[in-house]
Amino acid sequence: MWLKPEEVLLKNALKLWLMERSNEYFVLQRRRGYGEEGGGGLTGLLVGTLDSVLDSTAKVAPFRILHQTPDSQVYLSIACGANREEITKHWDWLEQNIMKTLSVFDSNEDITNFVQGKIRGLIAEEGKDSFAKEDDPEKFREALLKFEKSIGLPEQEKLVTYYSCSYWKGRVPCQGWLYLSTNFLSFYSFLLGSEIKLIISWDAVSKLEKTSTVILTESIHVCSQGEDHYFSMFLHINETYLLMEQLANYAIKRLFDKETFDNDPVLDDPLQITKRGLEYRAHSEQFKAFFRLPKEETLKEVHECFLWVPFSHFSTHGKMCISDNYICFASQDGNLCSVIIPLREVLAVDKTDDPNRSVIISIKGKTAFRFNEVKDFDQLVAKLRLKCRAASTQCDVAISSDATGQCGHLEEQPLTCQKECSKTVNTEALMTVFHPQNLENLDSKMLKEKMKEQSWNILFSECGRGVSMFRTKKTRDLVVRGIPETLRGELWMLFSGAVNDMATNPGYYAEVVEQSLGTCNLATEEIERDLRRSLPEHPAFQSDTGISALRRVLTAYAYRNPKIGYCQAMNILTSVLLLYAKEEEAFWLLVAVCERMLPDYFNRRIIGALVDQAVFEELIRDHLPQLTEHMTDMTFFSSVSLSWFLTLFISVLPIESAVNVVDCFFYDGIKAILQLGLAILDYNLDKLLTCKDDAEAVTALNRFFDNVINKDSPLPSNVQQGSNINEKSSHTKVDITDLIKESNEKYGSIRYEDIHSMRCRNRLYVIQTLEETTKQNVLRVVSQDVKMTLQELDELYVIFKKELFISCYWYLSCPGLKHHDPSLSYLEQYQIDCQQFRVLYHLLSPWAHSANRDSLALWTFRLLDENSDCLINFKEFSSAIDIMYNGSFTEKLKLLFKLHIPPAYTEVMSKTSSKGDELSTEELLYFSQLQVSKHADKKEAESGKNTPEKGKGKIDIQAYLSQWQDELLKKEENIKDLPRMNQSQFIQFSKTLYNLFHEDPEEESLYQAIAIVTNLLLRMEEVGRKLHSPTSSAKEFSSTACDSGPRGPEGNADSNVEKGPSSPREEHQWSFAFEQILASLLNEPALVRFFERPLDLKAKIENVKSSQLRSRTKV
């Protein structure tokens, strides 16, 4: 590798380097201790230790080339190499291309300048296609070389960054280098001859946290597959930890949580991930979450500046954040002043000539924002003007195309259809229809409601109204007191960011409603079942108006997002949204909740809710330690709080109190729910500490929820769920407003950043726990059908899954990821294709030494692939491995027999003759799909009809029951049911046996035994053949088989297989039954000993665990 020329003082380096070659201008040196017997003694060990600690590949590579300046002790290092071949290549290039040119120059200075320029040019040329786009490319290149040399991962593995740190092995710290790459966390240390190499795949990490103990002041704790690893002495531990957290979560999303990853195009290509890219992505995600912007937005620029706050008459310091369609500002002081300015609202962007370097942004509604002390404000103004022009152009095009599309669409439809479409969507909130305010009869509650409205109107006059209003501490205080009924829908839309989604997608909801009406699938069936369970006591949902609106919103969302479809609890949330928001607004609020504010809550595994429950448990440990000590099992909080998170307390609180919680949720996000949960437990702390079991604790909490009231609610008594209960109850009443205020006062110090960090940390734990559950269920099912021990089965499952992931590490489109579906049964969640099976077959099978091992792997795969979808699951895979290792003589022979008859057997011919029996990936996949595609297409079509996720039709329960019954009645295969083996198949079967016996200690006796068996079988068939033909080719085959015996598989037997089936000499082929072959082989003790020889599966698995990744490196 060419290096940026750096000065080296040769006088001090002579002790560490030995001269290999030299000429007038260059010197090739070898590192002392490298390539010497015994490692070069003590000097070699010391040099190796120094190499491991120092941060320069020029010092640690075993070979280097220096450019020498005559009459000087200072040399320039220009190249280094990991091996002699690489450095020799560089040396030869210098002699052929540089040496002749240097003789032209007159002065030594000119020679040095020319060499330096040439080497820099070579480095620049190499760096054109390099993916090491980091802040210090030269230093990163050196670290990359050291990473590849010491860790030994495949060259496709992308190094993201590296750090110097200590790894604690027991109580001893080992200084070395931590390498963070796309798929692995690696550590390497070499101290005084002791080498430590650690490689942990990110997908195996179940815990990642920063810890501090008496010995380790601050360290990073990594837990992988039950083993704990500690790393300390980082220069920038926070930066390191955040990057590790991002890489671990990326791997978890990509491999385990496909639903989330499919919606995440930023991380689609694992080979393009860089440290800078990850940091940029983290800032962008934080930006979108804080300002509740659409998920398509990305952060482009950040500028520190001051924003003039007119109603407070002062400028607040903060950051201006700019994306494609928004200008946002957030203050850095405690006032929490923030502003969101959509570019679609901007009328003009101006700058002032005063020394304040001010940028003035004017928006619709006669409002202007003044940003002072903006750096590079001339360039910023020019950029913003361009963005505003582009935004206004897009808006005009969208409006015109939408209007044209609607007109054209309406012209094609009859008049009756137009009337139906206009009446489909409700244009008013259900609350205004069913509970209009009576302005003539103002009681005390209505007066308080009017006072709230007046407070908000004063705020609007000061801070503005709409998307671009100032959001301050006063705004939060008003939200905590409860949003007025008349403003609730508007402010929910504003604080959730749903107003932006609706503004940028005009007409979308009506279109989706029209397309989704009449569809029938599993989601719509579940929706119909739950419609009348959604706030059934509320008059709005006792009428067709409310039920129809709820049906349309839920069906439209299931149509928009089929990966989520419909999940229980969505009906309860949506019904509340419909009470206060118009139907289209309720749809966009549901989108905001499901896709941004509560990510992964409503998918099939409710991972998001489980993660937030784990965060809640962590907060309980921190803020309510006495409760943690009393409750022996923390899962109690998970079981109790699940409905709190999924329904935002709507399912446990009376409706009039729950809407106040929803107010806070739309303003503060999940932070509001966590704070309220802690406040509820704190309020009931004494009661919970006296509870003896979980049932008593649940009863205490339910009694508390029944007594939560909203004394200021203007809703009629027949609507308020808690009014009747509370009147008769003797328990203390708790006002929801006071409870929310208390939660803010006690737990308002919880930061968004802390919640985000806890979410990332607990996401690893939750997903790994779900994966462990999947594994245990698979093992429980499979263990009933195999003879392997549970430990062997467990380790085999890990290897099976690891191979699937390894094949997905470096490829964008991987069948393993494409077919992974967590909603499927446990057995079907992970399946491998033929190429992945071949790798595992080579690693695990006791027959993998055979010359035709690729063909055997192919035939085994085809045999196991009973449903012809070109994928096999773990149960099918383990059944084959179990027979090979634990099967009886008859079971092993039956497996080999079935491999050489259809549907498993197919004639295999490699296109590359030089490879012999080895098959390329393309050939393997082609043969695995041979005579399968039609059946697979038919099966896919049938599954499309019967499976609600794939087809639009109703689910066929009868088909599932029939399939289940067939599996229950499935009996063990009788050997008499096996078809007969024809001539060409028997030839290949004999060849396979010869290949299996190759290099066996009893090889000669085994060859003789198979020759005897072959001759015996042929004589048995000869009598029958004479009835059809006076001549027989059986003798020809006998001589062929016997001749190939002594030579083994390297003979000319390959050509016989290809000629066998196509030979026109025979009009009547002979065939053998399995019983004939079995009986003949049983007569040969050598053959029986070979197949009944005990095989150590445990030792094989241990060997594979250590070599699985290394074998992929060779590939």
Automatic annotation (TrEMBL):
Q: Where is this region: Disordered?
A: 1028-1065
Q: According to its UniProt record, where is this protein mainly located?
A: cytoplasm
The portions of this protein that span the membrane are none
Domain Rab-GAP TBC per the UniProt entry, residue ranges:
482-669
Gene3D superfamilies found in the cross-reference section: EF-hand, Pleckstrin-homology domain (PH domain)/Phosphotyrosine-binding domain (PTB), putative rabgap domain of human tbc1 domain family member 14 like domains, Ypt/Rab-GAP domain of gyp1p, domain 1, Ypt/Rab-GAP domain of gyp1p, domain 3
Question: Can you say where in the cell this protein is located?
Answer: Cytoplasm, Cytosol
Q: Where is the EF-hand domain?
A: 852-887
Tell me which species this is from: Cricetulus griseus (Chinese hamster)
MF terms (GO), sorted A to Z: calcium ion binding; GTPase activator activity
Q: What is this protein called?
A: TBC1 domain family member 8B
Q: Which residues lie in Polar residues bias regions? A: 1029-1042
The superkingdom of the source organism is Eukaryota
Could you name the Gene Ontology cellular component terms for this entry?
Answer: cytosol
Upper lineage is:
Eukaryota, Metazoa, Chordata, Craniata, Vertebrata
List GO BP terms, alphabetically.
glomerular filtration
InterPro entries documented for this protein: EF-hand-dom_pair, EF_hand_dom, GRAM, PH-like_dom_sf, Rab-GAP-TBC_dom, Rab-GAP_TBC_sf, TBC1D8B_PH-GRAM1, TBC1D8B_PH-GRAM2
